TrEMBL record:
Gene3D superfamilies: 3.30.70.930. The lineage of its organism: Bacteria, Bacillati, Bacillota, Bacilli, Lactobacillales. Belongs to the UPF0045 family. Residues 6-96 form the Thiamine-binding protein domain. It holds the Pfam family Thiamine_BP. This is Thiamine-binding protein. It comes from the Bacteria. It comes from Candidatus Enterococcus myersii.
């Protein structure tokens, strides 16, 4: 693992129901990638290889549009550690989980 991201996908739709349905499809895609991930209230954290995660960011937006969003905003944080010695999601959060 040489990278981790946090991604928040915001589909531009009218109802909360539509937002939830579209975001659920994006999260289902993230789950299907096989990457280690953690869903949070505002964003989803994912760790893996840099190139793969950049493709994941692209696909999350395309999936939201395919699921019915006429447009989508995505807020992304990227941590890149070329030597592969970055902190994992577990190292960052396990002690805080209940």
């Amino acid at each position: 693992m040489d990278a981790s991201i946090a991604i928040q996908v915001l589909p531009k739709v009218e109802s909360k129901k539509e937002v939830i349905a579209i975001v659920d499809e994006v999260i289902d895609y993230i789950k299907s990638t096989g990457y280690t991930y953690q869903v949070g209230a505002f964003e989803t954290s994912v760790e893996g290889d840099y190139e793969g995660l950049m493709e994941l960011v692209k696909q999350c937006q395309l999936i939201a549009v395919k699921a019915g969003a006429p447009s989508v905003s995505a807020y992304v944080k990227i941590a890149y550690t070329p030597k592969g010695d970055g902190l994992t999601i577990a190292e960052k959060t396990d002690k805080h989980q209940h």
